[in-house]
């Protein structure tokens, strides 16, 4: 529906740090349904369509456990193309005995779990945008129980689990941050996102192009939470896809006006939000 394509800015890719690459690849292939696109001794690019890397898994040297009460990844979210795909993966999880959380967010239906290192994962399917309810630029979202009986009625009969469908994309990312107002200014004034939903003073959801959210931001780890240690498992960086070179040039200038730095590393422009979450800016 165009929410993850030009002229919007959106999350395209996520890189996470793990303790044991082999353990992680078993999970991501057998449980989540990714395929390996490319692999080295310490990294693997994971794909749903055999062409596009959605997730990079990187094994740490001398890793530390994922820190509690720190900023960083709450979850990244894989968006499935159809509701029936969500029904299929529920059935797959049941067959494998995988414990999951779930929620009906009104705009979408979601499943939640974590990889072996505690990296949070959401797998979801959007409701049609005509079903989203907007009021003064704010979209209605909730945390209602998921109606599994209704969802599983969508399951395609006679088909076996074949992994993530080719149309799967990175739908959004949700981050723990230390200061919600400071973070809001960075993403809205620096990166041109708009606030589309807010949960009191603890969480907000931002997007471009009237999507329900490309990023979620929360202070649920506590206001003033520190950034994790460099050798902690968790988020390494995420990639934002900008529409074109002019948009990136404008964003870089705006980000620097917020007081953040932008550097060029191996041809990629890199910045960090006020909580230390690293962002690659690509076109």
TrEMBL record:
**Which top-level group of life is the source organism from?**
Bacteria
**Entry-linked Gene3D superfamilies:** 2,3-Dihydroxybiphenyl 1,2-Dioxygenase, domain 1
Write down the Pfam families for this protein, in alphabetical order. Glyoxalase
Q: What are the VOC domain coordinates in residue numbering?
A: 10-126, 169-283
Official protein name in the record = VOC family protein
User: Which organism does this sequence originate in?
Assistant: Salicibibacter halophilus
């Amino acid at each position: 529906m165009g929410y993850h394509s030009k002229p919007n800015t959106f999350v395209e890719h996520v890189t996470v740090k793990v303790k044991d690459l082999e353990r992680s690849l078993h999970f991501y292939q057998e449980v989540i349904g990714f395929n390996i696109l490319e692999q080295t001794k310490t990294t693997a690019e994971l794909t749903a369509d055999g062409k596009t890397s959605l997730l990079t898994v990187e094994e740490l040297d001398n890793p530390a456990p994922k820190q509690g009460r720190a900023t960083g990844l709450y979850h990244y979210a894989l968006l499935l193309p159809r509701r029936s795909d969500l029904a299929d993966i529920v059935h797959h999880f049941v067959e494998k005995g995988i414990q999951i959380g779930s929620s009906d967010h009104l705009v979408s239906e979601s499943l939640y779990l974590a990889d072996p290192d505690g990296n949070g994962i959401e797998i979801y399917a959007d409701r049609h945008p005509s079903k989203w309810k907007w009021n003064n630029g704010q979209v209605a979202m909730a945390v209602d129980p998921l109606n599994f009986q209704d969802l599983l009625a969508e399951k395609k009969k006679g088909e076996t689990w074949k992994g993530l469908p080719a149309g799967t994309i990175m739908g959004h990312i949700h981050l723990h941050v230390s200061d919600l107002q400071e973070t809001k200014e960075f993403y809205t004034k620096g990166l041109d996102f708009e606030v589309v939903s807010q949960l009191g003073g603890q969480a907000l959801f931002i997007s471009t192009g009237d999507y329900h959210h490309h990023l979620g931001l929360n202070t649920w780890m506590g206001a003033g939470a520190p950034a994790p240690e460099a050798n902690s498992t968790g988020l390494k960086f995420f990639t934002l896809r900008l529409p074109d070179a002019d948009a990136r040039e404008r964003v870089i200038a705006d980000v620097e006006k917020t007081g953040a730095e932008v550097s060029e590393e191996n041809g990629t422009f890199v910045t960090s939000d006020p909580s230390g979450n690293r962002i690659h800016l690509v076109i």
